[in-house]
Structures are given as structure tokens and as C-alpha cells.
Design a protein that fits this description.
single chain, six-stranded parallel sheet, 30 helices
Amino acid sequence: MMEDGRERQRPSPDALLDRARRDAAGRGRLKVFLGAAPGVGKTYEMLTIGRARLKAGADVVIGLVETHGRSETEALVEGFEVVPRRQVGHSGGILADMDLDALLARRPALALVDELAHTNAPGSRHPKRYQDVEELLDAGIDVHTTLNIQHVESLNDVVAQITRIRVRETVPDVILDRADDIEVVDLNPADLIERLKAGKVYEPAHAERALRHYFVRENLTALRELALRRTADRVDDELLSHMQANAIAGPWSAGERVMVCVSEDPRSAGLVRYAKRLADRLHAPWTAVTVEGTRSLGSSEADRDRVAEALRLADRLGGDAVTLPGSWRVADDLLAYARTANVNHIVVGKATRSWWFELVHGSVVHDLVRRSGVISIHVVAGEMAAAPASARPVATAPARTGFNGAGFDRTGFDRAGYSFAALATLAGLGLALALKPYLGVENADLFLLTAVVAVAARFGLWPSLAAVVAASLAYNFFFLPPVYTFTIADPTNVAAFLLFTLVAVLVSNLAARARTVAVISQRRARATERLYGFSRKLSGCGTLDDVLWATSAQIATMLRVRVVLLLPEGDSIAVRAGYPPEDRLDAADLAAARWAFANDRPAGRGADTLPGARRLFLPARTGRGPIGVIGLDTDGTGPILTPEDRRLFDALADMGALAIERVRLVEDLARAARDAETDRLRQALLTSISHDLRTPLAAVLGAATTLRDLDTVLDPEAKGDLLATVIAESERLNRFIVNLLDMTRLEAGAVAANLTPQDVAEIVDTALRRLGAILGGHRVVLDLPDALPALRLDPVLFEQVLVNLMDNAAKYAPAGSTVTVAARVTSERAGGPMRVRLQVLDEGEGLPEGEEERVFDKFYRVRKADSVRAGTGLGLAIARGFVEAMGGTLSAANRPDRAGAVFTLVLPVPVDGGRAPDIAA
């Protein structure tokens, strides 16, 4: 049925399922307040809307809101019911996190949960807060939450490239896609910077550092664009889903979408490139579409190759490639897809058919223009591909059967089809004659029509038309008076004969079309199943060897050939995989493989170049160029691949090439990360040697020179001070060198802990004596219980751990402050293994937020005032390595009771007095 020239559409099943999922009874609704950066006002907006809902009588509860000390936000919190936070002990401190169980028990209508990307405290039911939100939604609780664009998983690399800061806390895109509503909280970069300077985002100390690194105008502008684009994509998807779920005929011109029509015309590649340029100008997604119907099944192999190559070109250029099953009119199929996909620009090639062809078969271009409605039709002359580029330089073998996918021979007479038509007509005639005395003449035509339908369903249109002719003649000869002649005496019988022939033609045509659609669907299903299975294999391959083996095995199995796969190595190429396994090539094969890779063209058996080789070598390429060569071989002689096999090989080779490129990109990224880390460590080491080691040397040299030159004029007290300086700076220099040597031993795996029962208090006392001069300006408090059990430790390593920790405390705590060493015997659960928790606490400024783990990185140093003694940045890294070598753990945190840092060592208490095994670092 048609309405205003458009076919009535049915709702999309996928869109209906998505709507049913969103409207499922019992599931809460999720609203995300999305911002480009911290401080744009996401929490403020969430609280404002929550307050409006609260005034309207809704049951609104704050599950967790981080005000960050902002007075405006704190004022909005007043009046809400706030679920008390859960207190969690961690690394000697207390963390306050959202109490999920209490919120589920309270079961409000709406819960406000800030910071969706937050990592929960250790020991929580879920590691991430977005998983808590998912549980709340499953319980039927609506949730409003906040999220910054840099925490979206798919944008993590983009944000890192823009800001040069890698965000570790991310949220999967599927969480954002499932959100029922997304509200962008936008703020001009200039206004955001002013808020930062005014102290409304971070504390002044953090704000100054943020202004220098993250909150740069260029960064904020780029992040703002990311947030707006991500939301625009979501709105576009929602619009398309709404149209499909409600069977709304598009397009709605809310956004631009481009579709290019691909056929066997040699200009199709030029049309694809034009569509790409048009989509780039419109900043729109685009799709290349071809319709596979009766005409496509009867196309020549060259025509089918052109269609396949045009679709591959669209895929390489970043578009989508879609193949539609054909119906009666190609234009109707194209417009139906365009309206479903909300396409508003269709690119089609200018018609080159003769007027007689268009009169008989119709014109797709004219039909599109007449029926398109509000869709813009771009009729383009196109670019004719050059003959050498379009010609396939590889000879192909004949098809393995005499019939194409539709069941008829494209190259000659279909003997089986026409023979079956004759036999089916004879069978129908025999049944009609045998049952004529019982059913009468008027039912004889039904048997003949049944024979025609059987031929059409089995062999297609042309054999069925032959059956129509035979059945019509038989009907006239045996059933229309005078019988046994082809003469028709009664004019009414003429009408009956013509009507029978017309019905037979229509029925045969419809049956042939139904069979064509079935054949196309079966063929596409088989190809899709095979390619999907191959893609699943490739997705599970983590190494290059796995990808090469899977690719060679799949090609060999599907094409029934022997395969070798060669990749470049230096200035040449070498065999990397084969199926069956084979790694030797003769001189002719190797020359053909090298030529194929160097020129990005086939070579070898059946090709125009080096046809004397035993194998056919075809380049495997991606959008960046050839990445390898695939060699094919069979036992026979002559061409190896049929045209259909060649198209299948192209698809398999493209998938394998992309998988190879993916693995190589991962390896390149890992190599680049290692190189960057090596360079960072090299620079840090050079800085340490040039500055940190040079400072004590300069002090020693200055004191020694003064003693030498002014020995006669210096009083004993001054000489004593200079000697003390020489000794102190020499000890400092010795510690630096020891740290460098210890880190070298740790990284080389040369540290083996000699574990013996040791008194912890005694080692602490020894370490304090070593640090007497360094800790002289601080008050040291020991809080060690008398009943502290002996631990299996390496006394030398453990003493160095304590020295490094207390030296770090003295370095970053102000003079006159207290350094505390405390120990307790604890157990994580009743009846569980006992552990000794030893802590070193200082009263300095503490650790910067989020850098509790980074302090253990090599050469990492927290930026402090110039008065802080310099160090190599290795002490804490060495301490953790030594502790782990003794079977313990070392962590860092800020003190919960006051300013300062706390370093916590956890060591197991031995169960018996037996000798513990050595643990290598």
C-alpha cells in the first residue's frame, strides 16, 4: 500500500526491542549530567534539578555528592536526606564511600550519585561506582549522576593526546549509551578559567598547577567540542531509533546522511569517491549501497568484481558498505533503506542506458528523482576507471559447477533446466490425461501450472518460460476442441488459452523471483557465517603468530588451496606461516613474492608477471598500503581461483591484513611506551647525577678546600663544623650511590631475601641510629608493643627499608615535627592469618591527591619547596621492592587524623618456626 508515493513501513524490530528494554518494568531511569571538565557545574545542576523534584513531592535522596568545599554546592545539599557514607579502612587510613546497601534498603524514587567514574574503596562489592549505579537501576531506583567527557572509555586516547594526561578512571561507552537522558552542562572556557582562579574549582595550590597543565584554553575548547559531539551523536541515534520504532518514513533533516548507489557500472568507484568528498563537506556519515537481485545474479564476473571492489573502496574510505536483497524495483529498495536510515542525500550515477533499455526495464535514476520526495538526489557523471586499474591481472579458473548462484548457466545452454522443464510438463500432462475422466477438462490446467511452478522454483525463469510454452501447447493440443490439433474452433477457448498462458507466465515469474531471493539470502548467509567465524577467530588472537596461523588456515580451508604467508623482514620478505606448514620457496616463487610486495600487484602462476612460478602471490593490504604477500598453490596446473573464490579471498585477505595491522599497532604502542619510559628514566638519571650527586660533591669539595687553605686561621670549632659537613655530605653521597646500585639489583632480579627470624624493634633501633643526624631536627615517637612477634626478615634489606622511609619522612616534614613509627598485630578476618602492620607517619603536607601510587615510581619526586633536601627519587621504589622480596606489601596514603603522609608495611607472621623459602624479587 502506498501513501503519498511512499510505501507503508513496518517498525524496526531492533528499535522496538531497544524501546522495550528502556521501558522495562522495574528498571530505573538513568540521567547523566555530562561536562567537558571539572568545575563546569555538573553537580550544581544535578542538585538543582533534584531540589525541583523534591519540591514537587518526589522521594529524592543523596547517595553521594562531592561538594569539594564549594559553598554554592554545599548550600544546595541542605534540605536533602543524605544516606550516611560507609567507612572503609585502607592502608592505615579511613575512606568514606557510598553505602550501596543502605541506599538499596532506603529505596528512594530518585538517588543522586556524583562522579560516575569513581573507583570504589577496596573491599567494596563493586570495584567501580558505575557498577553500583547499575545495581540501583536494576532495583528500580532512578539515578542522576555526573560524568566528565575525559572518563568515557572510547575517548580515553583522544583526551590523552589533547591534554597529555592519561585518565585512569573510565566508564564503558555502553553505560552512556544506555542512559535514558544526557544533559550537557556547558561553560565557556574563559568563564571556567575565571572560576578556577577564584578558587571555586580547586584549592589555590592545586588551581595554580591545573592552570599550567590541564586547564589551558586550547585543552578546554577541544574537550568542550568532544562533549558536544558525543551528545550530538547520541541525539542523532535517538532520533533514528524513534523513527524506526514508530515506522516513521524519513528523512527528518535534523542531521546530514549520505548514501551512494553502487552498481556494476565502471564509474561506481568514482561515485564512491564523490560521496566521500560530499560527506566530508557536510561532516556527515555515509553509506555505499548495492541491490542484489535477479539482474545481479545474471551479471558477468567482471561486473560482480566491480561491485565488490567499489564496496571495498567505500569501506577503506571510512564509509559503511551495505548489500540489500532486491525486489521488483531497485529504486523502491534504495528509497526504503534511505528513509529507514534517515538519509537525506543520495548520490547516483548519470544514466547511460539506451532509451529502448529504459523503456523495457525502467530507469533507476528517473525513479529515484520522481519518488524521492524531500531527499536530495545528486546525479553525477562519475569518473570512468582507467582500464589497467580496473582489469584484474590474474587469470581465473572456470566455476566448479556449471551453474551460478541462481541455478542457471551464465555461459551457455542450461541442459538440466530445460530437460527438467520438458519432463515436468510431460508429467503434468500425464496426470491431467489420467484424471480427465474424473476431474474434467476444466481442471487439467492446474496440473500443467503445477509443473511450471516446480520448474521455476528449481531452475529459475528461463526454463520455466520454456515450460510455459510447452504447457500452453499441450493444453491446446490435448484439451481444447478440436483435440489433437493446434486449431481452436471456439472463440471462448481462445480467451481460455491466452488466459492460461498469461497466468502461467506470471506464476513462473513470481516463483522464479521468490527462488532468486531465497538463493541470494542463502548465499549471503553462508558467506556471512564464514566471515563471522573468521572474525571471531581473529578477535581472539593476541600475537602476530596466532593471527598469521588463523589467516593461513582459514584461507586454505575455505578455498581448498595450500597457503604461505610472507611478511617483510628488513629489505626482503620471508615466510612467516603456512597451511599446511611450509617454509621453503624456490627461486621463481621467491622472486614472484618479492615483486608482488614491491609493486602491490599479483605475480606468479596465472598472473601477467612471472607466470612461471608454481604459486600465485597476492598482496595483502590495508588503507596504509601492502603489509605482506599471500601465496596460493594447488596440485593442478593453470589458474587457481574462480571469480567467486577471488572475491572471497579478497574479503579474507582484508580481514587478515587488518588483524595483522592491529597486532602490529599494539606492539608499536607498547614499544613506544617502553622507549618513552626508558627516555624518561634516562633523563631522570642524568638529572640526578648532574644535580643531586653534584650537590654533596660540591659541599665536600668546598669544605675540604677551606680546611686546606685556611687551616692556620680557623678555630677548632670552625674546623669541626667543616669536618662534620664533609662527613654528612659524604654519607649523603654514599646513600645516593647505594640507592642506584640497589635499584640496579632489583631490576636485574638479583635480590634474594635471606629470611631468618628477626626482632622488629631491634632493627628499628638500628635504623634510628643510622639516621641520627638526619632525624636530629625532628621528634621521633616509637609505638611498638612489647609482645610484637618475631618475623622472618632479611635484616639488611628491612633496615634499608626503614632508613628510606624515615629519611623520606624527615625530608618532607617541617623541622620540629614528629615522626612516628608504630606497629600492630592484625588479622583481616576472624581466624585468618596474622600480620604485622608497621607504619611510618610524618606531619608534613601529605601526598598530592591521586599520586599515592606514583610516589613508588622510579625517579618520581613530589614537588616541594626549595628548602627540601634533594634526592634521587629512588628510595621509596627500592623500599617497596625490598618489602615485596620479603613477602610483604608497602603502600602510601595521607593521614586521616591530620596533615601528613603514612607509609604502611604489612608483613606476614610465620605460623611455625620452620625456615621460610627465599623469595626472589
